[in-house]
């Protein structure tokens, strides 16, 4: 594309497809009258103005006045969010969770805005499409939420939607393929119009949802590639992300080879600095009208077992003997579905609402891990309610090489306990036990029964902590530009590590976080010498 001498092209940083689209427009602008309707007349400037202001393939020209975005204002309720949740059956559990936590979210928003200047922000147009919750995905995750199915993903989606809304952004929810098409395919004749459809600034989805979007809009998905944020519970490591590498090393699986920027994968826990930690909120208090009664709940000599499904109680040897041993010290309670063949001495409450689980945790001294499920939210809920967690060790560690759970997952991480994040919290809140070692289990139980612990909640898993984190990510994490870097280089602290120690572990020992954004700066002769 030759530049007009009177119209030098501006910098294209963050718009990798702009030049290609300009070439297309030069040849094709006469194929549809809508282009001339938008002012295209065959000149390079008219192509550029169309591709930057009607569509968004190119940067807006300096001096051009485009409609300004409205400011993002911290919301005082979820009043405007509920109608879009109410008519989507796939989001029913999410709707209920957000509703039950409304007062806590609103108060967290007020608290955060009192501590930080949140006024100079623009409200983003954000599409949220949880692909795995759609009927078309076939997973039935949304359906199973009320009958003992896994809740981890729905907890995270619920808290993300609440966070985006409280922060003052425009949240567009899609929970089906037709809804997705309606949002992404708004067109007049052959060319899209911003006046008829919303251009998203960010798209939050999961790997299932990404594939659905690729099917709906075909190759046009590339236009949105850098604004995707992909919720990915266990994370995606570099080996599994690059298609050529995946092919060469036979690392095929249903979730890999996406060729995204690694920071676009948003995880449940901070597994790896290669991905972005999104997290979730630990539910730990009832609404204000019941909080006094909640605080006065007396702790009983009881344990609550972490296991809703029959398979959690039955799989593996030694679980029965382990729970029998705990019963010698404490009354044992459970919240298992009616298919579970559990010991007769267990007082089983069945599948109950989160509100009732909070009460049980507040009454109990020990939350008993059985080894599965892995890395769920519940152990942190126990700690936040002042209940110690027995965290079973896993030997040998589980990975994609020896576990059906991790088979096909795009990570080679080895899991050494039921809850690695809780493992790092340690005693007196989290007690590591080999469930086959009676002496070890007895030692932990004796210590727990002789201690009193206050509720413990890491800030990053509070409503305010999540609001703070997501706000910073929205404002600072720009994956469409190669020139903008964040965090600032002034934040760098250099740690010397022993050979073979990962950046993550070396920084963790110093109370710091490994930040790969600094690698290019650090990886030079001059800076290494310093």
UniProtKB/TrEMBL annotation:
GO terms for biological process: protein N-linked glycosylation. Pfam families: Glyco_transf_18. It is found in: Golgi apparatus membrane. InterPro entries: GT18_cat, MGAT5_Glycosyltransferase. It is an enzyme of class 2 (transferase). This is alpha-1,6-mannosyl-glycoprotein 6-beta-N-acetylglucosaminyltransferase. Its main location: Golgi. It is a single-pass type II membrane protein. Signal peptide: none annotated. Pathway: Protein modification; protein glycosylation. One of its GO terms (cellular component) is Golgi membrane. Keywords: Glycoprotein, Glycosyltransferase, Golgi apparatus, Membrane, Signal-anchor, Transferase, Transmembrane, Transmembrane helix. It catalyses: N(4)-{beta-D-GlcNAc-(1->2)-[beta-D-GlcNAc-(1->4)]-alpha-D-Man-(1->3)-[beta-D-GlcNAc-(1->2)-alpha-D-Man-(1->6)]-beta-D-Man-(1->4)-beta-D-GlcNAc-(1->4)-beta-D-GlcNAc}-L-asparaginyl-[protein] + UDP-N-acetyl-alpha-D-glucosamine = N(4)-{beta-D-GlcNAc-(1->2)-[beta-D-GlcNAc-(1->4)]-alpha-D-Man-(1->3)-[beta-D-GlcNAc-(1->2)-[beta-D-GlcNAc-(1->6)]-alpha-D-Man-(1->6)]-beta-D-Man-(1->4)-beta-D-GlcNAc-(1->4)-beta-D-GlcNAc}-L-asparaginyl-[protein] + UDP + H(+). Its EC number is 2.4.1.155. Residues 34-529 form the Glycosyltransferase family 18 catalytic domain.
């Amino acid at each position: 594309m030759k530049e007009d001498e009177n119209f030098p092209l501006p910098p294209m940083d963050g718009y990798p497809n702009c030049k290609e689209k300009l070439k297309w427009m030069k040849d094709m602008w006469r194929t549809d009258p809508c282009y001339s309707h938008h002012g295209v007349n065959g000149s390079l400037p008219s192509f550029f103005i169309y591709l930057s202001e009607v569509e968004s393939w190119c940067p807006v020209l300096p001096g051009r006045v485009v409609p300004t975005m409205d400011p993002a204002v911290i919301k005082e309720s979820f009043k405007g969010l509920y109608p879009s949740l109410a008519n989507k059956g796939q989001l029913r559990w999410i709707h209920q969770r957000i509703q039950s936590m409304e007062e806590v979210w609103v108060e967290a928003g007020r608290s955060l805005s009192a501590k930080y200047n949140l006024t100079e922000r623009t409200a983003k147009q954000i599409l949220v499409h949880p692909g795995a919750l759609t009927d078309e995905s076939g997973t039935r995750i949304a359906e199973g939420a009320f009958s003992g199915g896994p809740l981890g993903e729905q907890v995270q989606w619920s808290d993300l939607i609440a966070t985006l809304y409280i922060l003052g952004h425009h949240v567009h929810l899609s929970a089906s393929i037709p809804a997705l098409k309606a949002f992404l395919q708004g067109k007049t004749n052959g060319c899209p119009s911003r006046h008829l459809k919303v251009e998203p600034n960010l798209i939050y989805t999961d790997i299932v949802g990404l594939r659905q979007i690729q099917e709906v809009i075909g190759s046009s998905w590339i236009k949105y590639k850098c604004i995707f944020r992909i919720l990915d519970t266990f994370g995606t490591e570099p080996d599994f992300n690059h298609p050529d590498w995946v092919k060469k090393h036979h690392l095929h699986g249903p979730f890999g080879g996406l060729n995204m920027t690694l920071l676009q994968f948003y995880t449940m826990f901070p597994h790896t600095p290669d991905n972005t930690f999104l997290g979730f909120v630990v539910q730990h208090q009832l609404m204000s009208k019941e909080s006094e009664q909640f605080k006065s709940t007396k702790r009983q000599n009881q344990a609550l077992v972490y296991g809703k499904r029959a398979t959690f109680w039955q799989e593996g040897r030694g679980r029965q003997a382990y729970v029998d041993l705990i019963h010698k010290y404490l009354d044992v309670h459970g919240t298992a579905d009616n298919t579970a063949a559990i010991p007769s001495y267990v007082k089983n409450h069945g599948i109950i609402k989160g509100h009732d689980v909070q009460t049980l945790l507040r009454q109990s001294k020990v939350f008993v891990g059985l080894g599965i499920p892995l890395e769920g939210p519940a152990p942190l809920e126990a700690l936040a309610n002042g209940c110690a967690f027995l965290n079973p060790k896993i030997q040998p560690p589980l990975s994609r090489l020896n576990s059906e759970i991790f088979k096909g997952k795009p990570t080679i991480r080895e899991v050494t306990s039921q809850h690695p994040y809780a493992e790092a919290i340690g005693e007196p809140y989290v007690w590591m036990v080999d469930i086959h070692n009676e002496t070890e289990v007895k030692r932990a139980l004796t210590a727990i029964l002789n201690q009193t612990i206050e509720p413990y909640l890491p800030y990053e898993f509070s409503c305010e902590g999540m609001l703070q984190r997501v706000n910073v990510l929205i404002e600072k994490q720009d994956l469409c530009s190669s020139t903008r870097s964040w965090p600032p280089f002034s934040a760098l602290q250099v740690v010397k590590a022993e050979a073979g120690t990962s950046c993550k572990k070396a920084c963790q020992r110093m109370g710091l976080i490994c930040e790969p954004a600094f690698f290019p700066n650090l990886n030079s002769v001059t800076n290494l010498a310093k």
